[in-house]
């Protein structure tokens, strides 16, 4: 039995208990899309979407999205409006997006919720609270593919305040979402900038100079085998070691810390098996597991440049497996690369280190904002 009927954190001026309501009481209609396959058309301009198209509050159209003509749309599709929230209800449960006038036709894994007596921004945040999510997950149907029924959504119990308090809460979280979206866009821009520099500051295939270069550097880059500039070292099992302060890295990054090390020299980690396309910059001392090679620089080569170079290489091209992706020392050794003189390597390495640091900072700030929102969702709802 639930006793707390007021939130832990509340805007000044609001008092009294929140009222127990069902989600459906705050809506005009809750429905879903087509239970079947529409007739696709190369001339259509209506995007056929499902729950996987609902990402971070927006309808995401991609190159896999198929289109239909307007006569395929149901009347419900055509009546979607600014008070409509879309939610994934099949497979992935609970992804949300605002409807903003997009020309879409809904599939069965996308539900629409047209908000009426609840404030729509409040409702959008309410659907993200842990209590609502838990109720949804505890009332799914299906075995292999889980489904959230429309009746379950309508009858979901919750607590809501008066409309003025709803509006204040909805506005507050809307501003927080805008901040998160801004940081996400800045992070995306930084990553795109890095990819652009990787394309322009390394020679294209068949060429010996890059398109963009620091002033003062001329002459061609020299072709080498990767094994001529990097030494590929094998990782080892760590389970015989005790806990300590030496980090252990796997293909997914940091795992734990132990009391011994494999290397006293900074290195580049690259997957031997499993995830083979995720280079890591490893600060010594460290240990790597047997599925992660660590590559140290040979004489007269810059580690930060080599790390940028590792981010440029298409590692999947050198996959030797027919199942789980894998790389061998010999395949890595024989990858052809072009490199400049040490001074130019150093300049390029520093540039990409600055970009990586900026990306890491934005990722931390974004994670902190998301955690802040999560905490407020816990404390500002009943």
Automatic annotation (TrEMBL):
<keyword id="KW-0540">Nuclease</keyword>
<feature type="coiled-coil region">
    <location>
        <begin position="352"/>
        <end position="379"/>
    </location>
</feature>
<keyword id="KW-0175">Coiled coil</keyword>
<dbReference type="InterPro" id="IPR044946">
    <property type="entry name" value="Restrct_endonuc_typeI_TRD_sf"/>
</dbReference>
<keyword id="KW-0238">DNA-binding</keyword>
<dbReference type="InterPro" id="IPR000055">
    <property type="entry name" value="Restrct_endonuc_typeI_TRD"/>
</dbReference>
<feature type="domain" description="Type I restriction modification DNA specificity">
    <location>
        <begin position="17"/>
        <end position="192"/>
    </location>
</feature>
<dbReference type="Pfam" id="PF01420">
    <property type="entry name" value="Methylase_S"/>
</dbReference>
<protein>
    <submittedName>
        <fullName>Restriction endonuclease subunit S</fullName>
    </submittedName>
</protein>
<comment type="similarity">
    <text>Belongs to the type-I restriction system S methylase family.</text>
</comment>
<dbReference type="GO" id="GO:0004519">
    <property type="term" value="F:endonuclease activity"/>
</dbReference>
<feature type="domain" description="Type I restriction modification DNA specificity">
    <location>
        <begin position="220"/>
        <end position="370"/>
    </location>
</feature>
<keyword id="KW-0680">Restriction system</keyword>
<keyword id="KW-0378">Hydrolase</keyword>
<dbReference type="InterPro" id="IPR052021">
    <property type="entry name" value="Type-I_RS_S_subunit"/>
</dbReference>
<keyword id="KW-0255">Endonuclease</keyword>
């Amino acid at each position: 039995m639930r006793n707390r009927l007021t939130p832990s954190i509340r805007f000044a001026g609001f008092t009294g208990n929140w009222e127990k309501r069902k989600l459906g009481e705050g809506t005009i209609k809750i429905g879903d899309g087509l239970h079947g396959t529409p007739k696709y058309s190369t001339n259509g301009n209506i995007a056929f979407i499902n729950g996987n198209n609902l990402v971070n509050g927006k309808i995401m159209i991609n190159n896999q999205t198929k289109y239909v003509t307007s006569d395929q749309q149901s009347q419900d599709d055509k009546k979607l409006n600014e008070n409509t929230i879309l939610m994934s209800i099949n497979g992935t449960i609970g992804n949300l997006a605002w409807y903003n006038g997009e020309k879409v036709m809904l599939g069965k894994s996308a539900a629409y919720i047209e908000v009426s007596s609840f404030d729509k921004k409040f409702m959008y945040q309410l659907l993200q609270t842990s209590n609502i999510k838990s109720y949804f997950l505890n009332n799914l149907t299906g075995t292999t593919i889980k489904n959230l029924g429309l009746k379950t959504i309508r009858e979901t119990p919750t607590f809501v305040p008066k409309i003025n308090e709803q509006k204040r809460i909805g506005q507050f979280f809307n501003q927080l979402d805008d901040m998160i979206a801004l940081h996400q866009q800045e992070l995306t821009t930084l990553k795109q900038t890095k990819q652009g520099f990787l394309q322009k500051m390394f020679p294209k295939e068949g060429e010996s100079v890059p398109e963009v270069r620091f002033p003062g550097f001329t002459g061609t880059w020299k072709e080498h085998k990767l094994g001529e500039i990097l030494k590929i070292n094998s990782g080892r099992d760590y389970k015989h070691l005790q806990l300590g302060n030496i980090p252990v890295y796997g293909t997914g990054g940091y795992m734990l810390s132990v009391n011994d090390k494999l290397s006293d020299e900074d290195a580049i980690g690259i997957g031997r098996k499993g995830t083979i396309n995720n280079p890591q910059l490893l600060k010594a001392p460290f240990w790597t597991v047997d599925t992660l090679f660590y590559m140290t620089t040979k004489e007269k080569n810059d580690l930060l440049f080599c790390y940028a170079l590792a981010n440029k290489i298409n590692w999947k091209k050198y996959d030797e497996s027919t199942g789980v992706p894998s790389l061998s020392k010999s395949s890595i050794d024989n990858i052809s690369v072009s490199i400049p003189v040490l001074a130019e390597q150093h300049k390029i390495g520093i540039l990409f280190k600055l970009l990586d640091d900026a990306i890491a900072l934005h990722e931390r700030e974004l994670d902190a904002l998301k955690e802040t929102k999560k905490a407020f969702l816990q404390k500002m709802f009943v």
